[in-house]
Amino acid sequence: MNPVSTEHAVSVLLERYLEVIPEPKTEWVEEWDAKIYQQRIGEEQVIWRPVKRDEVQDFSKLESALDMRFHDSVKRLFGDWFSGDLSLAFATGETTPSMGFELLMPQCQEDAERLLQNLTGHILMKRKLKQPVTIFIGILHEHDDCLVSIDNSTGEVALEWLGKLQHQTLAVDLATFLLQCQPHSGEND
Questions:
Q1: Structural domains of the chain, count
Q2: Would residue 115 count as lying in a domain?
Q3: Measured in Å, how far apart are the chain's first and last C-alpha atoms?
Q4: What is the dihedral of CA 74, 8, 82, 54, to 10 degrees?
Q5: How confident is the model over 125-153, as pLDDT tens digits?
């Protein structure tokens, strides 16, 4: 078991991200009351900064509706911070190059609710397919139908093609995975 908490791993990753990409940008959504928004860039983009939530996301109503509990690491990833999505790289092995992916993060409460709706759809699809429940946390840059996901029962982080079983384990838990990820500017894509 990893002695580093998910909360700590997320905080460290956000700090490293801002060191490498000091002015991260995301799409500006006028309808959102997003405290992360710092400075508009043109019509469609904004520089953002992560914001620790005053109150953590409450998953209890959704857990009750779905008759399940979300893995604690999922609650910490999506429940403690508002942030733009993080463009990251993860080395999948000694002989394989690193994979680039977007780690999904809620930008504000409206975005958090939208994320929970999307997670609900994913969970219901997994149940319909009679597959173990996974929670998607990211999307590969090269294949937008390949997800980075957490096995909701074990907490393992793995890859899965949309609608398929997890096929490649990346880390034993989310904290270990996040500590191995590196910020990726995306300029070489």
A1: 1
A2: yes
A3: 35
A4: 100
A5: 999 999 999 999 999 999 989 999 999 99
